[in-house]
Amino acid sequence: QMCEKFTVCENSMEMLLQNNLNLPRVTEEDGFVNDFLTFLSFQEKCLRKISSGLHTFQTYLKFIQETFTSENQNVESLSYSTEQLAHTIKQMVMDPEEVIIPDAATQESLRTKLNSSKKTWIGKITTHLILRDFTSFMEKTVRAVRYLKNTRSFSA
Question: Which domains, and CATH codes, for the chain?
Answer without folding.
Answer: 36-154 (1.20.1250.10)
